[in-house]
Every structure is written in C-alpha cells, then in structure tokens.
Amino acid sequence: MKAGTSGQLATGNAPMANAELMAIRQKVAATRRATPRQAHLRRMAALFLLPAAAFLLVLIAYPLFNVLWQSFNYGNLVDPATQGYAGLDNYRTVLEDEDFLPAFWHTLTWTVLSVAGEYILGLIAAIVLAQPIKGRAIFRGIVVVPWVIPIAIAGLNWMWLLNPDYGVLNAWMVKLGLLDHSRDWLGQIDTALLTVTFVNIWRSFPFYTISLLAALQAVPADLHEAAAMDGAGPIRRFWVITMPHLKAVSLTLIVIHIIWTAINFDFIWVMTEGGPLNASQTLPVMIYKFSMQDYDIGAACALASMSMAFMASLFFVYFYGLGRKEAR
User: Fold this and answer.
1) Measured on CA atoms in the order 172, 178, 180, 183, is the torsion positive or negative?
2) pLDDT tens string 117-132
3) Are 129 and 141 in contact (CB under 8 A)?
4) Domain encompassing residue 51
5) pTM, to two decimals
6) Which residue from 44, 122, 184, 251 could staple onto 205, CB 3.0 to 4.6 Å apart?
C-alpha cells in the first residue's frame, strides 16, 4: 500500500520536475541569447566612462601619487641641486617643527567649531523656512546669498567690516554699548581664529539649510499628525520623528564638511594669513608656507600626505560603518 502510494507520488512529481527543468533550461538559453547584447552594452558604457576615467586619472590620481612620491624625496623650488631619496626625513622635519602641534590643534578647533556651528545654524534656518510663513520663497532665496559669494570677496568684506578703525561692526557694537572701544578682532591672538571660524560659519551654513530643508519636506506629515493626536508635543515630535528622517542627510553633510573644512586654505589665508604670531595657522596654511615661503617641497608633500591619510581614514571609517549598518 505504502509502496504504491510512493510510486504514484513519484510518478505525479515527475511531470512537475520535468517542467521545472525545462523552465531552467529556457532561462539559461535566454541568458545566453542576451549575452552578446549585454556585452555590447558594457563596452558602450565603458567607452562613455573612459573620458571621465581619464580626467580623474590625469587631474586627480596622478597628482596625488606625485605628492606621495615627493614626500619621500628631497626637493627645493630655488635649489635644483637639492634632490634625492629622503626616506622619512621629510616626515621628521614636519613632526619636529615647533609649529606643527599648534597648527594641528588650530585645525581641529577650526574644523569642529565650524562644522558644529554650520549644522546648528543650518538646522534652525531649515526648520524656520519649512514653516508656512509669509514671504517664505523670498527668505529661501536670501539665505543662499552667503554661499554664492566667492571666498576671497567674502573674506575681504569681513576684514573691512571688522576693521578697528573704520569697521561698521565695531562702530555699531560701541554705539550699542557692547564694547567700550573698537577691537581688532583679526589682529589679536585670542580672537583671530574664532573670528575667522565665525565668518566661515556665516558663509557655509546655507548649504546645510538647503540640504536639511529638502529632507524636512520629505518627512511624512501624517506621522506628525498621528503623534500630535497621541499627545506628543512639538519637541517630542522633533526628536522622535523629524531627526531620524534627517539622520542620513546629516551624517553625509557632517562627514563631507569635516573634510572640506579641515583642508580649507582660502578663508584663513585671505583674512589672517595664519597670524597673528601663527595664532590662526592651520595645517593647510602650514603646507603653503613650507612650499611657497620655505621652498621645501618635500616637507610640504609630507604634511599633505599626512593630511590626506587622515581624511581618507575618516572617509573609509564612515563608509565602512555605513556598510556594516546596512548589512545588519
């Protein structure tokens, strides 16, 4: 009885197994027929990507490799006889320089304060501009103005505004009683770096505002309505609903701007040139001085390579952590 039933099941399953086998064979045949077309599409895609790959190779990859190579060789802009393999001497020159540690801490302070201030101010501006206020479109256009002003022009304008002799801001602060007398904000050791940081925040926060505003508009309104019906207040809704939706955009903005700010040279050089007495000197300014004032190309490339290694480490840590999170 059992044997007969087993035979019937085997016989009944045979057509099903044959049908599945035929379907698999048909899929394989279809894949083989599509292979020439797919190969052609891949060749066409590679052909279209070739100019971009050449651009990256010539203008980015080769200069980076050259900087790394020069960091292990002696080089001087005014003395062609200074050449040859240096090993780690250029790195020792940088690490033993008395300005290296102060410049490192200035870079850290400049980067952390700038990114934190830009994010906080950008988030506040994005929340305000997301509200149904009158003239919202006009304000959204105005907030972008600092971002589109070139760094050199913005730096020079702020130098004039902060000038202790004829600066408008000093005059206003004295008139309002905030200061007893005009102050040289860019010429004093204790305020130079913080002043440049403030100006950098003023110029860069609109980029955060635009990005975070776009993310805010993508938050489903029904979630806020449901939370409000459940008794959640505005602050509770912000932390539980809004911020999780801004997390991905916020992390991307912060990581990108940490890299951009740490390697920023323009603002500090235009406004203070790293002074007074190197009080606002950061690592990019130090690289410039190594190369264009001391003419020591090897030391400049060594410091640039160290900075690149740090930024690459930050970049890979971020994406490695992001990849592990997505895998989980």
Assistant:
1) negative
2) 999 999 999 999 988 8
3) no
4) 2-70
5) 0.79
6) 122
SS3 assignment, position 74 = strand
Q: What angle do CA 322, 323, 327 make, to 5 degrees?
A: 120
Q: Are residues 262 and 142 in the same domain?
A: yes
Q: Is residue 94 part of a domain?
A: no
**Residue among 205, 183, 207 at smallest CA distance from 195:** 183
Longest dimension (CA), the chain: 110
Cα(278)–Cα(280) distance, rounded to whole angstroms?
A: 5
* Three-state SS annotation for 117-140: HHHHHHHHHHHHHCCCCCCHHHHH
Whether 199 contacts 213, CB under 8 Å:
no
What is the count of structural domains for the chain?
2
Domain contains 285: no
Angle at 187 between CA 183 and CA 188, to 5 degrees: 75
How many CB atoms lie under 10 A from the CB of residue 4? Answer: 8
